[in-house]
């Protein structure tokens, strides 16, 4: 299968529309890490969906999981952890680049404790969104519940570090938010509820309002360095291409247009938040154009296949559809932009992390 280029994997007729949620993270280039952050950021605290979930969904009753092979086959020890990837996700690479630790653990993972979480933890939950109705689809952690876990984390941190040091950690940590794609692809366009209540534009406003409230609550709890991630060209994910019938596997233009529109609203929101929140440094991380450059010219980034994913046929499968012994699964994921039909490979995640460190993170020096 390695010789197939772009989306030329075997076609299958079954259309599975159970998609996991995924916001492709941040800015993407191949630039090297050039900024030294050691000691400036004591921890990375993460909120969001499957793009940044390191395995929280393993510990809640949901089908939105990936704690089985072939997920994690390129992770340390070939271990499936619950990350929707063949290896590390972007936040793991960010943590390593900042000199903190090689991976960011999931808050609900009982094999870790507050001594591990003190330098970084993710509260994220695959298949969630800004909208509570999105998290209800697959019974995952809504954003408000992630915030409740963060409050619990603060209590544990103060007991572990002492009040004064914990307060410094809370103020100086980097807060990453990566969420939103599922609100559109797994909720608004998948079920009649929200689409009967809101036009696309009004739904974007509704989600932006939730994003604003969430950032303000983080600020009230002591957060000062906050990165709010935008949407990727979500119409170019392999599943969206595969279900874009009659186009030969082209991207879904309407979904990409919506991503651009929503990103514009989030960018304006960040400008507003920086004016309203004293002492805050909120940055908008927009992945759209950099990721589109990879999609349009994958070979310049070292990729051979962009229209299909590595796992199984590369068109529809993710989660439980991505089975260990599927004969179509690729042997070298580094040739693919996507690992499954919604989520990027470890190599793509590494590229994203490098770019964010060298661009957005400079605002937090």
Describe the structure.
InterPro entries: GDSL (IPR001087), GDSL_lipolytic_enzyme (IPR050592), SGNH_hydro_sf (IPR036514), SGNH_plant_lipase-like (IPR035669). Belongs to the 'GDSL' lipolytic enzyme family. The protein has 365 residues and is α/β, with parallel strands linked by helices. It is built from twelve helices and five strands. The chain has helices at residues 90-97, 114-117, 132-137, 143-161, 163-172, 181-188, 192-197, 200-220, 238-242, 253-276, 288-296, 346-358; strands at residues 44-48, 120-122, 174-178, 225-229, 281-285. The relative contact order is 0.20.
Features:
36% helix, 365 residues, 12 helices, alpha/beta, 5-stranded parallel beta sheet, 5 strands
Element-level helix/strand string: EHHEHHHEHHHEHHEHH
Using the CA coordinates, give the radius of gyration. Answer: 19 Å
Number of strands: 5
Strand % is 5-15%
Q: Which segments are poorly predicted (pLDDT under 50) over 5 or more consecutive residues?
A: 1-35
Structural class category = alpha/beta
| General shape | globular
Overall pLDDT score: 89
Distance between the termini: 45 Å
Q: State the strand order across the main sheet.
A: 2-1-3-4-5
Largest β-sheet summary: 5 strands, parallel
The helix count comes to 12
Q: In percent, how helical is the residue content? A: 25-40%
């Amino acid at each position: 299968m390695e010789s197939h280029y772009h989306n030329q994997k075997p076609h299958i007729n079954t259309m599975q529309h159970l998609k996991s949620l995924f916001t492709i993270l941040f800015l993407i280039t191949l630039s090297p890490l050039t900024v030294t952050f050691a000691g400036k950021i004591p921890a990375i605290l993460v909120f969001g969906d499957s793009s940044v979930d390191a395995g929280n969904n393993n510990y809640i009753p949901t089908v939105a999981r990936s704690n089985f092979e072939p997920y994690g086959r390129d992770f340390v020890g070939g271990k499936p952890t619950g990350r929707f990837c063949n290896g590390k996700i972007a936040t793991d690479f960010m943590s390593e680049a900042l000199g903190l630790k090689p991976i960011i653990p999931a808050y609900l993972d009982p094999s870790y404790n507050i001594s591990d979480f003190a330098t970084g933890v993710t509260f994220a939950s695959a298949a969630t969104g800004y909208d509570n109705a999105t998290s209800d689809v697959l019974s995952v952690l809504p954003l408000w519940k992630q915030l409740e876990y963060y409050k619990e984390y603060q209590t544990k941190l103060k007991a572990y570090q002492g009040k004064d040091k914990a307060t410094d950690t809370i103020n100086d940590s980097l807060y990453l938010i990566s969420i939103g794609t599922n609100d559109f692809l797994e909720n608004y366009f998948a079920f009649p509820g929200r689409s009967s209540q809101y036009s696309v534009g009004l739904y974007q406003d509704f989600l932006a309002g939730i994003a604003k409230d969430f950032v303000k609550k983080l600020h009230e709890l002591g957060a000062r360095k906050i990165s709010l991630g935008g949407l990727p060209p979500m119409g170019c994910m392999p599943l969206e291409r595969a279900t874009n019938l009659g186009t030969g596997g082209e991207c879904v233009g309407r979904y990409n247009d919506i991503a651009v529109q929503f990103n514009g609203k989030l960018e304006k929101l960040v400008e507003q938040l920086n004016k309203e929140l004293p002492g805050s440094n909120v940055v908008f991380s927009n992945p759209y154009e950099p990721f589109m450059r990879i999609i349009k010219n994958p070979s310049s980034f070292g990729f051979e296949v962009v229209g299909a994913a590595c796992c199984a046929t590369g068109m529809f499968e993710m989660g439980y559809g991505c089975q260990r012994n599927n004969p179509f699964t690729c042997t070298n994921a580094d040739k693919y932009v996507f690992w499954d039909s919604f989520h990027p490979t470890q190599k793509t995640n590494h590229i994203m992390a490098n770019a964010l460190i060298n661009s957005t993170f400079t605002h937090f020096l």
